[in-house]
Design a protein that fits this description.
alpha/beta, 229 residues, five-stranded parallel sheet, 43% helix, four-stranded antiparallel sheet, 12 strands
């Protein structure tokens, strides 16, 4: 049974999320303040963390940042704040998803299932020998999930690695943001594709000599993105 931690200071919301997730077969625990939520996130093993942005003690941004320094546990950030800058910041810190309140509990359950299924496939996948992709100075080890640029290793979050690998495996093919969202996040974009844009930006910062003049991942205006050989 997958174990989920909800870090949410609004008790009624946390209890509602817990009820729906438990009905779907998950084991759920709740913390209502940031300090305790951060401590448990780092010291205990959870399969997924649902993290509110505005928390007493330590906010969701800082919790997410510290989690990503030590773990690859899927993180879904939730907030009543609708500003794109908060969404961009949360995703940039390594959150796997960002949901704006109010949202339906059934949508939360669907996203939790999608992230858990994808993470489980990644963890349980086994390949006898390392599968390597090499393109003009970039080396992607799919088996070890490591990336080198001109011989220097670069750190990637789970979704950044998945997105880069998918594009590199399908060079010269133009993908829309909606297609990339469905492929990497295993769900419909439901009108929100800022996640893809943020992750492309972070990848470019790590692989391009000049992220403003990309040589690998091209923007095809009005369509999407293409990995150029």
């Amino acid at each position: 049974m997958s174990k989920i931690l909800i870090v949410e200071d609004e008790v009624a919301i946390a209890d509602l999320e817990k009820d729906y997730l438990e009905l779907s077969g998950f084991a759920v625990e709740i913390e209502n303040d940031g300090e305790t939520g951060l401590k448990r996130s780092l010291e205990e093993e959870f399969d997924l963390i649902i993290l509110d942005l505005m928390l007493p003690g330590v906010d969701g941004f800082e919790i997410c940042r510290q989690i990503r320094m030590r773990k690859n546990t899927p993180v879904i950030m939730v907030s009543a704040k609708k500003d794109d800058i908060d969404k961009i910041r949360g995703l940039g810190l390594g959150a796997d998803d960002y949901m704006t309140k109010p949202f339906s509990p059934s949508e939360l359950v669907a996203r939790v299932k999608a992230h858990l299924a994808r993470y489980e496939r990644l963890v349980n996948s086994s390949v006898q020998e390392n599968d390597i992709i090499e393109v003009r100075g970039i080396k992607i080890d799919k088996t070890a999930r490591r990336v080198w640029v001109d011989g220097e290793e670069r750190a990637f979050t789970t979704k950044e690695f998945d997105l880069l690998t998918f594009l590199a495996q399908n060079p010269n093919h133009v993908f829309t943001k909606e297609e990339l969202f469905r492929e990497i996040w295993d769900m419909e974009s439901v009108g929100d594709i800022a996640t893809v844009t943020v992750h492309i930006k972070k990848i470019r910062e790590k692989i391009e000599k000049q992220s403003s003049k990309p040589q690998y991942i091209e923007t095809i205006w009005g369509v999407g993105y293409r990995f150029k050989l």
